[in-house]
Amino acid sequence: MRHPSLKLKLLKTLMAVILGGWLIWLLCQHDQVSRQQSRQGDLLLREVAEQVLLSMPRNIADVGSAGYLELPPTLAAAPTREFDKIRFQVWSLATGERVVASRKAPITPLKPDFQPGFGHVQTAGDRWRVYAVTDAEGRVQVQVGLAQSQVEAELAHWIRVSLISAIGVLLAFALAIWLAVSWSLRSTHRLRDGMAAREPLDLTPLPTAGIAREILPLVRSFNDLLGRLGVGMQRERQFLAEAAHEIRTPLAALQTQTELAMRATDPAQTREALQRLHGGIERITRLAQQLLDSARLEASRNEGREAIVELSDVATMVAREFEAMAERRHQTLVLTVEEAPVCADVDDLGILLRNLVDNAVRYCGEGGRIEICCHADPVAGEAVLRVRDDGPGVPEHERERIFDRFFRGSTGNGERGSGVGLSLVARIARHHGARIETGPGLQGRGLCIAVRFALQGETTAN
Protein backbone atom coordinates (compact mmCIF):
# COMPACT_ATOMS: atom_id res chain seq x y z
CA MET A 1 0.00 0.00 0.00
CA ARG A 2 1.45 3.33 -1.04
CA HIS A 3 1.36 6.12 1.53
CA PRO A 4 1.20 9.74 0.34
CA SER A 5 4.15 11.97 1.13
CA LEU A 6 3.31 14.94 3.35
CA LYS A 7 6.12 16.99 1.85
CA LEU A 8 5.00 16.18 -1.68
CA LYS A 9 1.38 16.94 -0.83
CA LEU A 10 2.30 20.30 0.71
CA LEU A 11 4.53 21.09 -2.25
CA LYS A 12 1.82 20.24 -4.78
CA THR A 13 -0.79 22.23 -2.88
CA LEU A 14 1.34 25.34 -2.49
CA MET A 15 2.62 25.15 -6.05
CA ALA A 16 -0.93 24.72 -7.37
CA VAL A 17 -2.04 27.81 -5.44
CA ILE A 18 0.95 29.83 -6.64
CA LEU A 19 0.58 28.60 -10.24
CA GLY A 20 -3.14 29.31 -10.23
CA GLY A 21 -2.56 32.81 -8.89
CA TRP A 22 0.19 33.43 -11.42
CA LEU A 23 -2.01 32.26 -14.33
CA ILE A 24 -4.78 34.60 -13.21
CA TRP A 25 -2.22 37.42 -12.94
CA LEU A 26 -0.86 36.56 -16.41
CA LEU A 27 -4.32 36.66 -17.99
CA CYS A 28 -5.06 39.99 -16.33
CA GLN A 29 -1.68 41.34 -17.38
CA HIS A 30 -2.19 40.11 -20.94
CA ASP A 31 -5.53 41.88 -21.13
CA GLN A 32 -4.10 45.01 -19.55
CA VAL A 33 -1.01 45.05 -21.76
CA SER A 34 -3.13 44.47 -24.87
CA ARG A 35 -5.37 47.39 -23.97
CA GLN A 36 -2.41 49.54 -23.03
CA GLN A 37 -0.59 48.73 -26.26
CA SER A 38 -3.70 49.55 -28.23
CA ARG A 39 -4.07 52.92 -26.49
CA GLN A 40 -0.39 53.75 -26.68
CA GLY A 41 -0.21 52.56 -30.28
CA ASP A 42 -3.09 54.80 -31.32
CA LEU A 43 -1.55 57.74 -29.47
CA LEU A 44 1.82 57.08 -31.12
CA LEU A 45 0.28 56.80 -34.58
CA ARG A 46 -1.56 60.07 -34.17
CA GLU A 47 1.47 61.85 -32.74
CA VAL A 48 3.75 60.65 -35.53
CA ALA A 49 1.19 61.52 -38.22
CA GLU A 50 0.70 65.04 -36.89
CA GLN A 51 4.44 65.62 -36.49
CA VAL A 52 5.13 64.41 -40.03
CA LEU A 53 2.37 66.63 -41.42
CA LEU A 54 3.57 69.68 -39.52
CA SER A 55 7.16 69.14 -40.67
CA MET A 56 6.23 69.09 -44.37
CA PRO A 57 6.69 72.34 -46.48
CA ARG A 58 3.57 73.89 -47.98
CA ASN A 59 4.65 72.97 -51.51
CA ILE A 60 5.27 69.31 -50.65
CA ALA A 61 2.48 68.25 -53.00
CA ASP A 62 4.39 69.88 -55.93
CA VAL A 63 7.73 68.32 -55.07
CA GLY A 64 6.86 64.88 -56.33
CA SER A 65 8.73 61.69 -55.68
CA ALA A 66 12.36 62.19 -56.57
CA GLY A 67 14.00 59.36 -54.63
CA TYR A 68 15.45 59.23 -51.14
CA LEU A 69 18.51 60.75 -49.52
CA GLU A 70 21.22 58.49 -48.17
CA LEU A 71 23.49 58.67 -45.09
CA PRO A 72 27.23 59.15 -45.60
CA PRO A 73 28.98 55.84 -46.18
CA THR A 74 31.05 56.36 -43.04
CA LEU A 75 27.99 56.76 -40.79
CA ALA A 76 26.08 53.64 -39.84
CA ALA A 77 22.36 53.92 -39.34
CA ALA A 78 21.31 54.04 -35.69
CA PRO A 79 19.06 51.25 -34.49
CA THR A 80 15.45 52.35 -34.46
CA ARG A 81 13.72 49.97 -32.14
CA GLU A 82 10.66 52.02 -31.28
CA PHE A 83 9.95 53.56 -34.66
CA ASP A 84 11.11 50.66 -36.83
CA LYS A 85 7.68 49.07 -36.57
CA ILE A 86 5.92 52.28 -37.73
CA ARG A 87 5.49 53.11 -41.44
CA PHE A 88 4.26 56.42 -42.84
CA GLN A 89 3.29 57.77 -46.23
CA VAL A 90 2.60 61.29 -47.49
CA TRP A 91 0.13 61.42 -50.38
CA SER A 92 -0.86 64.26 -52.69
CA LEU A 93 -4.62 64.20 -52.75
CA ALA A 94 -4.75 66.14 -56.03
CA THR A 95 -2.61 63.74 -58.05
CA GLY A 96 -2.97 60.59 -55.89
CA GLU A 97 0.82 60.31 -55.91
CA ARG A 98 2.92 59.19 -52.98
CA VAL A 99 5.23 62.12 -52.24
CA VAL A 100 7.16 60.88 -49.19
CA ALA A 101 7.32 57.51 -47.45
CA SER A 102 9.38 55.78 -44.78
CA ARG A 103 11.65 52.95 -45.74
CA LYS A 104 9.93 49.56 -45.92
CA ALA A 105 6.56 51.29 -46.22
CA PRO A 106 4.11 49.58 -48.59
CA ILE A 107 3.79 51.00 -52.13
CA THR A 108 0.02 51.01 -51.95
CA PRO A 109 -1.80 53.39 -49.62
CA LEU A 110 -2.05 52.28 -46.05
CA LYS A 111 -5.59 53.70 -46.02
CA PRO A 112 -6.98 53.30 -49.55
CA ASP A 113 -10.18 55.26 -48.83
CA PHE A 114 -8.11 58.30 -47.73
CA GLN A 115 -10.62 58.98 -44.96
CA PRO A 116 -9.05 60.80 -41.95
CA GLY A 117 -8.97 58.96 -38.64
CA PHE A 118 -8.22 55.45 -37.43
CA GLY A 119 -8.94 52.21 -39.21
CA HIS A 120 -7.86 48.63 -39.82
CA VAL A 121 -6.77 47.60 -43.31
CA GLN A 122 -5.33 44.55 -44.96
CA THR A 123 -2.47 45.45 -47.22
CA ALA A 124 0.95 44.14 -48.20
CA GLY A 125 0.02 40.73 -46.81
CA ASP A 126 -0.49 42.03 -43.31
CA ARG A 127 -3.16 43.60 -41.14
CA TRP A 128 -2.40 47.22 -40.18
CA ARG A 129 -3.68 49.69 -37.64
CA VAL A 130 -3.69 53.00 -39.55
CA TYR A 131 -4.20 56.68 -38.73
CA ALA A 132 -4.64 59.29 -41.47
CA VAL A 133 -4.60 63.09 -41.12
CA THR A 134 -5.14 65.69 -43.85
CA ASP A 135 -3.79 69.24 -43.87
CA ALA A 136 -6.10 72.21 -43.44
CA GLU A 137 -6.21 72.94 -47.19
CA GLY A 138 -6.98 69.35 -48.13
CA ARG A 139 -3.96 69.00 -50.40
CA VAL A 140 -1.82 66.42 -48.51
CA GLN A 141 -2.63 63.42 -46.36
CA VAL A 142 -0.23 61.65 -44.03
CA GLN A 143 -0.92 58.01 -43.34
CA VAL A 144 0.87 56.22 -40.50
CA GLY A 145 0.49 52.49 -39.95
CA LEU A 146 1.53 49.87 -37.43
CA ALA A 147 1.64 46.23 -38.54
CA GLN A 148 -0.39 44.00 -36.22
CA SER A 149 2.06 41.15 -36.74
CA GLN A 150 4.77 43.23 -35.10
CA VAL A 151 2.46 44.08 -32.19
CA GLU A 152 1.61 40.42 -31.74
CA ALA A 153 5.29 39.49 -32.02
CA GLU A 154 6.13 42.00 -29.30
CA LEU A 155 3.32 40.67 -27.11
CA ALA A 156 4.44 37.08 -27.70
CA HIS A 157 7.99 38.10 -26.75
CA TRP A 158 6.68 39.62 -23.52
CA ILE A 159 4.70 36.45 -22.77
CA ARG A 160 7.77 34.31 -23.49
CA VAL A 161 9.94 36.36 -21.18
CA SER A 162 7.22 36.25 -18.51
CA LEU A 163 6.88 32.48 -18.82
CA ILE A 164 10.61 31.89 -18.55
CA SER A 165 10.84 34.22 -15.58
CA ALA A 166 7.80 32.60 -13.95
CA ILE A 167 9.20 29.09 -14.44
CA GLY A 168 12.43 30.17 -12.81
CA VAL A 169 10.57 31.79 -9.93
CA LEU A 170 8.31 28.74 -9.51
CA LEU A 171 11.29 26.39 -9.44
CA ALA A 172 12.93 28.61 -6.85
CA PHE A 173 9.68 28.62 -4.83
CA ALA A 174 9.43 24.83 -5.11
CA LEU A 175 12.98 24.38 -3.87
CA ALA A 176 12.42 26.84 -1.03
CA ILE A 177 9.15 25.15 -0.02
CA TRP A 178 10.72 21.69 -0.16
CA LEU A 179 13.65 22.81 2.00
CA ALA A 180 11.32 24.62 4.44
CA VAL A 181 9.03 21.59 4.80
CA SER A 182 11.99 19.23 5.18
CA TRP A 183 13.45 21.49 7.85
CA SER A 184 10.09 21.68 9.62
CA LEU A 185 9.74 17.87 9.67
CA ARG A 186 13.14 17.21 11.17
CA SER A 187 11.53 16.58 14.55
CA THR A 188 9.35 13.81 13.07
CA HIS A 189 12.43 12.22 11.55
CA ARG A 190 14.08 12.26 14.97
CA LEU A 191 10.98 10.61 16.43
CA ARG A 192 11.06 7.97 13.71
CA ASP A 193 14.74 7.22 14.28
CA GLY A 194 14.19 7.11 18.05
CA MET A 195 11.27 4.69 17.71
CA ALA A 196 13.25 2.46 15.32
CA ALA A 197 16.11 2.24 17.84
CA ARG A 198 13.86 1.24 20.76
CA GLU A 199 13.57 -2.18 22.31
CA PRO A 200 10.31 -4.03 21.48
CA LEU A 201 8.83 -3.57 24.98
CA ASP A 202 10.12 -0.04 25.61
CA LEU A 203 6.96 2.00 26.29
CA THR A 204 8.55 5.15 27.69
CA PRO A 205 6.86 8.35 26.38
CA LEU A 206 8.24 10.02 23.29
CA PRO A 207 10.13 13.29 23.86
CA THR A 208 8.10 16.39 23.05
CA ALA A 209 10.94 18.94 23.12
CA GLY A 210 11.31 20.71 19.79
CA ILE A 211 8.15 19.16 18.33
CA ALA A 212 6.15 21.41 16.03
CA ARG A 213 2.89 22.73 17.45
CA GLU A 214 0.86 21.00 14.71
CA ILE A 215 2.42 17.59 15.45
CA LEU A 216 2.48 17.92 19.25
CA PRO A 217 -1.17 16.71 19.76
CA LEU A 218 -0.37 13.56 17.76
CA VAL A 219 2.73 12.86 19.86
CA ARG A 220 0.81 13.48 23.10
CA SER A 221 -1.99 11.13 22.06
CA PHE A 222 0.63 8.53 21.13
CA ASN A 223 2.23 8.97 24.55
CA ASP A 224 -1.20 8.49 26.14
CA LEU A 225 -1.57 5.27 24.17
CA LEU A 226 1.88 4.13 25.29
CA GLY A 227 0.88 4.86 28.88
CA ARG A 228 -2.29 2.78 28.56
CA LEU A 229 -0.34 -0.02 26.91
CA GLY A 230 2.16 0.09 29.75
CA VAL A 231 -0.61 -0.18 32.33
CA GLY A 232 -2.23 -3.02 30.37
CA MET A 233 1.06 -4.91 30.04
CA GLN A 234 1.76 -4.46 33.73
CA ARG A 235 -1.66 -5.88 34.55
CA GLU A 236 -1.05 -8.81 32.21
CA ARG A 237 2.32 -9.50 33.83
CA GLN A 238 0.67 -9.40 37.22
CA PHE A 239 -2.13 -11.63 35.95
CA LEU A 240 0.33 -14.20 34.59
CA ALA A 241 2.32 -14.16 37.82
CA GLU A 242 -0.79 -14.60 39.96
CA ALA A 243 -2.23 -17.23 37.59
CA ALA A 244 1.02 -19.17 37.75
CA HIS A 245 0.88 -19.01 41.53
CA GLU A 246 -2.77 -20.11 41.57
CA ILE A 247 -2.00 -23.08 39.33
CA ARG A 248 1.17 -24.05 41.20
CA THR A 249 -0.67 -24.29 44.57
CA PRO A 250 -3.27 -26.90 43.51
CA LEU A 251 -0.64 -28.79 41.54
CA ALA A 252 1.42 -29.12 44.69
CA ALA A 253 -1.69 -30.27 46.54
CA LEU A 254 -2.44 -32.81 43.80
CA GLN A 255 1.06 -34.20 44.11
CA THR A 256 0.69 -34.49 47.88
CA GLN A 257 -2.70 -36.25 47.66
CA THR A 258 -1.34 -38.61 45.01
CA GLU A 259 1.58 -39.59 47.25
CA LEU A 260 -0.81 -40.13 50.19
CA ALA A 261 -3.06 -42.33 48.07
CA MET A 262 -0.08 -44.36 46.90
CA ARG A 263 1.22 -44.90 50.48
CA ALA A 264 -2.20 -45.58 52.04
CA THR A 265 -2.88 -49.18 53.12
CA ASP A 266 -6.35 -48.64 54.51
CA PRO A 267 -9.11 -48.44 51.80
CA ALA A 268 -10.82 -45.66 53.74
CA GLN A 269 -7.65 -43.57 53.73
CA THR A 270 -7.15 -44.30 50.04
CA ARG A 271 -10.72 -43.22 49.26
CA GLU A 272 -10.33 -40.01 51.25
CA ALA A 273 -7.09 -39.18 49.44
CA LEU A 274 -8.68 -39.88 46.08
CA GLN A 275 -11.65 -37.65 46.94
CA ARG A 276 -9.29 -34.82 47.82
CA LEU A 277 -7.38 -35.53 44.64
CA HIS A 278 -10.62 -35.32 42.66
CA GLY A 279 -11.50 -31.99 44.32
CA GLY A 280 -8.07 -30.60 43.46
CA ILE A 281 -8.39 -31.73 39.85
CA GLU A 282 -11.83 -30.15 39.69
CA ARG A 283 -10.50 -26.89 41.09
CA ILE A 284 -7.53 -26.67 38.73
CA THR A 285 -9.79 -27.60 35.79
CA ARG A 286 -12.13 -24.76 36.72
CA LEU A 287 -9.22 -22.32 37.03
CA ALA A 288 -7.79 -23.39 33.68
CA GLN A 289 -11.20 -22.93 32.04
CA GLN A 290 -11.55 -19.46 33.55
CA LEU A 291 -8.08 -18.48 32.35
CA LEU A 292 -8.95 -19.74 28.86
CA ASP A 293 -12.19 -17.76 28.95
CA SER A 294 -10.22 -14.66 29.97
CA ALA A 295 -7.81 -15.14 27.08
CA ARG A 296 -10.69 -15.69 24.65
CA LEU A 297 -12.35 -12.48 25.80
CA GLU A 298 -9.17 -10.53 25.10
CA ALA A 299 -8.78 -12.12 21.66
CA SER A 300 -12.41 -11.61 20.56
CA ARG A 301 -13.02 -8.18 22.15
CA ASN A 302 -13.05 -6.33 18.80
CA GLU A 303 -14.53 -9.00 16.54
CA GLY A 304 -18.05 -7.55 16.64
CA ARG A 305 -19.95 -10.85 16.93
CA GLU A 306 -22.94 -9.35 18.73
CA ALA A 307 -26.40 -10.45 17.61
CA ILE A 308 -29.94 -10.53 19.04
CA VAL A 309 -29.86 -13.28 21.70
CA GLU A 310 -32.72 -14.55 23.83
CA LEU A 311 -31.42 -14.27 27.39
CA SER A 312 -33.94 -16.80 28.69
CA ASP A 313 -32.53 -19.49 26.37
CA VAL A 314 -29.03 -18.92 27.71
CA ALA A 315 -30.31 -19.07 31.30
CA THR A 316 -32.16 -22.35 30.63
CA MET A 317 -29.12 -23.94 29.01
CA VAL A 318 -26.73 -22.95 31.82
CA ALA A 319 -29.18 -24.07 34.53
CA ARG A 320 -29.34 -27.53 33.01
CA GLU A 321 -25.53 -27.72 32.99
CA PHE A 322 -25.45 -27.18 36.79
CA GLU A 323 -28.32 -29.53 37.71
CA ALA A 324 -26.03 -32.47 38.44
CA MET A 325 -23.58 -30.39 40.46
CA ALA A 326 -26.39 -28.89 42.55
CA GLU A 327 -27.92 -32.35 43.09
CA ARG A 328 -24.65 -33.73 44.44
CA ARG A 329 -24.64 -30.92 46.99
CA HIS A 330 -28.35 -31.47 47.79
CA GLN A 331 -29.11 -27.95 46.61
CA THR A 332 -32.31 -26.62 45.06
CA LEU A 333 -31.82 -24.88 41.72
CA VAL A 334 -34.84 -22.76 40.70
CA LEU A 335 -35.19 -21.22 37.22
CA THR A 336 -37.70 -18.45 36.43
CA VAL A 337 -37.50 -16.91 32.95
CA GLU A 338 -39.34 -14.53 30.66
CA GLU A 339 -38.48 -13.53 27.14
CA ALA A 340 -35.72 -10.90 27.28
CA PRO A 341 -33.91 -10.35 23.98
CA VAL A 342 -30.56 -8.56 24.15
CA CYS A 343 -27.84 -7.65 21.67
CA ALA A 344 -24.79 -9.61 22.81
CA ASP A 345 -22.26 -12.32 22.04
CA VAL A 346 -23.94 -15.60 23.01
CA ASP A 347 -20.61 -17.18 24.07
CA ASP A 348 -19.85 -14.23 26.34
CA LEU A 349 -23.32 -14.49 27.91
CA GLY A 350 -22.70 -18.19 28.57
CA ILE A 351 -19.39 -17.44 30.31
CA LEU A 352 -20.99 -14.68 32.37
CA LEU A 353 -23.92 -16.79 33.61
CA ARG A 354 -21.82 -19.94 34.18
CA ASN A 355 -19.50 -18.02 36.49
CA LEU A 356 -22.43 -16.48 38.38
CA VAL A 357 -24.13 -19.86 38.88
CA ASP A 358 -20.83 -21.64 39.65
CA ASN A 359 -20.07 -19.02 42.29
CA ALA A 360 -23.52 -19.45 43.84
CA VAL A 361 -23.42 -23.27 43.83
CA ARG A 362 -19.94 -23.46 45.37
CA TYR A 363 -20.44 -20.94 48.14
CA CYS A 364 -24.10 -21.57 48.96
CA GLY A 365 -23.30 -24.72 50.95
CA GLU A 366 -24.95 -28.10 51.35
CA GLY A 367 -28.75 -28.03 51.06
CA GLY A 368 -28.80 -24.41 49.91
CA ARG A 369 -31.17 -22.74 47.45
CA ILE A 370 -30.11 -20.94 44.23
CA GLU A 371 -32.51 -18.98 42.05
CA ILE A 372 -31.83 -17.95 38.47
CA CYS A 373 -34.22 -15.28 37.23
CA CYS A 374 -34.44 -13.68 33.82
CA HIS A 375 -37.07 -11.07 32.93
CA ALA A 376 -37.63 -7.88 30.97
CA ASP A 377 -38.17 -4.45 32.51
CA PRO A 378 -39.93 -2.52 29.71
CA VAL A 379 -40.26 0.62 31.83
CA ALA A 380 -36.48 0.88 32.29
CA GLY A 381 -35.83 -0.63 28.85
CA GLU A 382 -33.63 -3.32 30.38
CA ALA A 383 -33.29 -7.09 30.38
CA VAL A 384 -32.44 -8.30 33.92
CA LEU A 385 -30.46 -11.45 34.70
CA ARG A 386 -30.38 -12.22 38.43
CA VAL A 387 -28.67 -15.02 40.41
CA ARG A 388 -29.18 -15.19 44.18
CA ASP A 389 -28.65 -17.73 46.94
CA ASP A 390 -29.09 -18.20 50.70
CA GLY A 391 -25.46 -18.95 51.53
CA PRO A 392 -23.15 -17.02 53.85
CA GLY A 393 -23.05 -14.10 51.44
CA VAL A 394 -20.43 -11.37 51.16
CA PRO A 395 -19.98 -8.49 53.61
CA GLU A 396 -21.29 -5.23 52.22
CA HIS A 397 -17.88 -3.55 52.29
CA GLU A 398 -16.43 -6.33 50.10
CA ARG A 399 -19.17 -6.47 47.45
CA GLU A 400 -17.52 -3.97 45.13
CA ARG A 401 -14.16 -5.76 45.34
CA ILE A 402 -15.42 -9.25 44.49
CA PHE A 403 -15.22 -8.30 40.79
CA ASP A 404 -11.49 -7.56 41.04
CA ARG A 405 -9.24 -10.20 39.58
CA PHE A 406 -7.91 -12.73 42.15
CA PHE A 407 -9.85 -11.17 45.04
CA ARG A 408 -11.24 -13.61 47.59
CA GLY A 409 -13.79 -12.66 50.19
CA SER A 410 -13.45 -13.29 53.88
CA THR A 411 -16.41 -15.74 53.89
CA GLY A 412 -16.10 -18.79 51.69
CA ASN A 413 -18.02 -21.63 53.34
CA GLY A 414 -14.89 -23.78 53.21
CA GLU A 415 -14.49 -23.28 49.47
CA ARG A 416 -11.29 -21.81 48.07
CA GLY A 417 -11.99 -19.93 44.86
CA SER A 418 -9.64 -18.63 42.19
CA GLY A 419 -10.81 -15.02 42.18
CA VAL A 420 -11.16 -15.07 38.39
CA GLY A 421 -14.79 -15.94 37.72
CA LEU A 422 -16.49 -12.74 38.89
CA SER A 423 -13.81 -10.60 37.24
CA LEU A 424 -14.84 -12.24 33.94
CA VAL A 425 -18.46 -11.34 34.73
CA ALA A 426 -17.50 -7.67 35.22
CA ARG A 427 -15.44 -7.54 32.00
CA ILE A 428 -18.20 -9.10 29.90
CA ALA A 429 -20.83 -6.78 31.39
CA ARG A 430 -18.63 -3.74 30.76
CA HIS A 431 -17.99 -4.83 27.17
CA HIS A 432 -21.76 -5.11 26.54
CA GLY A 433 -22.63 -1.83 28.28
CA ALA A 434 -24.48 -3.67 31.07
CA ARG A 435 -24.80 -2.63 34.74
CA ILE A 436 -24.05 -4.90 37.69
CA GLU A 437 -25.91 -4.60 40.98
CA THR A 438 -25.19 -6.50 44.20
CA GLY A 439 -27.30 -6.99 47.30
CA PRO A 440 -28.50 -9.51 49.87
CA GLY A 441 -29.78 -12.85 48.63
CA LEU A 442 -32.77 -14.98 49.58
CA GLN A 443 -34.56 -14.19 52.85
CA GLY A 444 -31.97 -11.52 53.67
CA ARG A 445 -29.13 -14.03 53.49
CA GLY A 446 -26.57 -14.92 50.87
CA LEU A 447 -25.71 -12.81 47.84
CA CYS A 448 -27.69 -11.47 44.90
CA ILE A 449 -25.96 -10.35 41.69
CA ALA A 450 -28.08 -8.74 38.95
CA VAL A 451 -26.82 -7.81 35.49
CA ARG A 452 -28.93 -5.30 33.51
CA PHE A 453 -28.63 -5.30 29.71
CA ALA A 454 -30.27 -2.98 27.18
CA LEU A 455 -33.57 -4.56 26.13
CA GLN A 456 -34.15 -5.29 22.45
CA GLY A 457 -37.65 -5.52 20.92
CA GLU A 458 -40.88 -6.57 22.64
CA THR A 459 -41.25 -9.41 25.17
CA THR A 460 -43.91 -11.80 26.48
CA ALA A 461 -43.99 -13.77 29.73
CA ASN A 462 -43.43 -17.55 29.81
From TrEMBL:
Catalytic activities: ATP + protein L-histidine = ADP + protein N-phospho-L-histidine
Domain of life: Bacteria
Organism the protein comes from: Stenotrophomonas panacihumi
Membrane topology per record: Multi-pass membrane protein
Gene3D superfamilies named in the record: 1.10.287.130, Histidine kinase-like ATPase, C-terminal domain (3.30.565.10)
Keyword Phosphoprotein in annotation: yes
A single Gene Ontology CC term: plasma membrane
Subcellular localization, as worded in the UniProt entry: Membrane
Keywords tagged on the record: ATP-binding, Kinase, Membrane, Nucleotide-binding, Phosphoprotein, Transferase, Transmembrane, Transmembrane helix, Two-component regulatory system
Entry EC number(s): 2.7.13.3
Residues of the HAMP domain: 182-234
GO molecular function, one term: phosphorelay sensor kinase activity
Domain Histidine kinase: start-end pairs: 242-457
Protein name: histidine kinase
InterPro entries, per database record: HAMP_dom (IPR003660), HATPase_C_sf (IPR036890), HATPase_dom (IPR003594), His_kinase_dom (IPR005467), HisK_dim/P_dom (IPR003661), HisK_dim/P_sf (IPR036097), Sig_transdc_His_kin-like_C (IPR004358), TCS_sensor_his_kinase (IPR050428)
TM helices/strands, residue ranges: 158-181
